[in-house]
Write a structure and sequence with these properties.
This protein is α/β, with parallel strands linked by helices and 691 residues long. The chain has 22 helices and 21 strands. Helix 6 packs across helix 20 and helix 6 crosses helix 21. The structure holds adenosine-5'-diphosphate and magnesium ion.
Length: 691
Amino acid sequence: MGDITLDTEVRFVKGVGPRRAEQLSALGVETVEDLLTYYPRRFGLRRQAQPMGTLRGDEQTATVAGEVVHTGYKPFGRRPYFECTLRDETGWVGVKWFHGGYLRSQIREGMTIAVSGKVGVYREAIQFVNPEFQTIWAPESTDLDKDELMPVYPAGGQLSSGRIALIIKKVLPRAKHLIPEILPGDLLADRALMPRADAVAAMHRPEDRDQWGQARRRMAYEECLLMQLGIALVRMREVSRPAHPLAGSEEIDRRIRARFPFELTAAQDRAVSDISADLSRERPMNRLLQGDVGSGKTVVALYAALLAVANRKQVAIMAPTEILAVQHYRNIRQYLAGSRVRIELLVGGQSRQQRQETRHRLAEGEIDIVVGTHALVEGDVRFSELALVVVDEQHKFGVRQRSGIRGKGHAPHYLVMTATPIPRTLAMTVFGDLDVSVIDELPPGRGKTETRVARRNEIPGVLEFVRSQLSADRQAYFIYPLVNPSANTDMTAARDAYEELAGGELKDFGVALLHGQMPADEKDRVMSEFRDGRVRVLVASVVVEVGVDVPSAGVMVVMHAERFGLAQLHQLRGRIGRGGDDAVCILVAGGSTDMAGKRLEVLEKTSDGFEIAEQDLRLRGPGELFGTRQHGLPELKVADLIEDFDLLRLARRDSFAIVKSDPGLNAPHHQRLRTEMLKAYAGKLDLLTGG
Ligand code: ADP
Ligand code: MG
């Protein structure tokens, strides 16, 4: 067996044959380096082994090690079990694993194993039940005479955590010296970080919890630093592309504001001045405008658009669905009624000829503001002078689609609106290059929305309540996670619910079904009937479809609410209470566990979107928070965006300082850092920064 390197495939590692290599590959582990960075999920404490003769059956935790002198399997009975007997020089013990059939291939007579767990008595003999166990291949080299932290690895398929532990334990002494330091020495010293090779080793086999904490801190810092370096580099690149400065003036400001039949809220004013300042610069704006549904983001975006138009430039406004694009278009047209601003809609649902005409006029500079879906960025849409792109990510913050449109202009200013309350901490650091404005105040005259969590058995009462509300001339949404019934779940689907409600409980009120699979014109028809009150109850499936502003809708019932993320539910309930009246949102938890309902109670207590988002992030991770689409967030192995926030901030500061001093990371002491960064983020940098 020759020497190994970090790139050596695992199948060439001693103790790993082709079969195990395949099993490892299923876990994403191909090379020695992958193996070294396949970190334990947690640690179990294995107590120092004690002589069997000294055990008492007192239900205390103990560890023993000895030879397997007998094994047996009892597959029948209520609880099948696997058992064995262990012996050392001082005595013997029985060990039993209920449902332990899988152990037959792992524990055989003649082997030495250590078991660790509670000691009891069964038929007057000392016995362990369901203990942790470890195979001792070389008793003399295994440290059984002191307490030891045992790594527990994410296992999969045929590969147990114990087996992985063993493989890694064997490879560590041979590979540790191969692990290069990638951080410059002064940083290592200034931040008091453990050297990399030591840290990787201690991630697997720490002396104690404290050492593991140090190792973890080092690796988490490194991860954050690499991510932030990527962001810093892209930012440097972007800043070097000039944009059209869009100047404002008191006169322009006055004329724009005159378009709105209300005063902007203080929060809107703050966002407007952030944006105006950005637009006046020669460097492209890159700003995230966050605010709950109905907080008045569109109005702020329109302000920005009109500023661009006043500078004789073009603006593209993109919405995630046609319904929303049309709605934006209509709203904006109303604000602009009687002005000379030329605004057009461009969506797939239009006739080919109509679209062609719009495209032509766009290219000729005969349109000032175009509103559309992502169709705007696809194909051959050309602008004569695109200076501002506004993206409405109303429902989900998807980083991906953005890349396309930015290529269209010279270097357009860029504004993304989102109702996903991205925790401030996350926005600041992960989306490090996006500036953020938050609208944290609703326009005046809105009602309050009260949220209640109901259990499934309370549904009759809920329906009774909804009926009373409908009788009082209000409108209601019923939201379901599914459109069609599915064989895989017993969840009620919107389609079934619609038939039931329309034909039964709510038949006097005009019920309609709305879902994403309906043809566009039918959706439009249903929406307009709901808007003008002919339809009083809307049974809807997909979130996006209810992205519609109907002020008289005062009740929302979300069924199987546990299926949704908290942030998503928060956005959903933003649909009601848009008129002056108070509204009620009822979340029906259909889950089998009470946990499902418990989680939802956060929404009863707070209406602070950021707090809710942070809860979501904690409970379900960023993938959930940002929707099922590619969220573009980097995958972090060690760092935790919430728990390690301070570390992240530190890494952010350090990385920006590094890039400032060495923009290309060309200095010799930055070489390894550069290589690692590219390895981690090559091809992903645009995503990371919304490029
Ligand atoms: P968002 O895009 O954040 O969902 P909109 O900009 O669409 O919010 O505004 C929601 C509603 O509130 C619209 O009907 C809009 O006319 C109204 N609105 C916006 N800003 C104000 C304000 N400052 N005062 C009163 N009403 C406002
Ligand atoms: Mg809106």
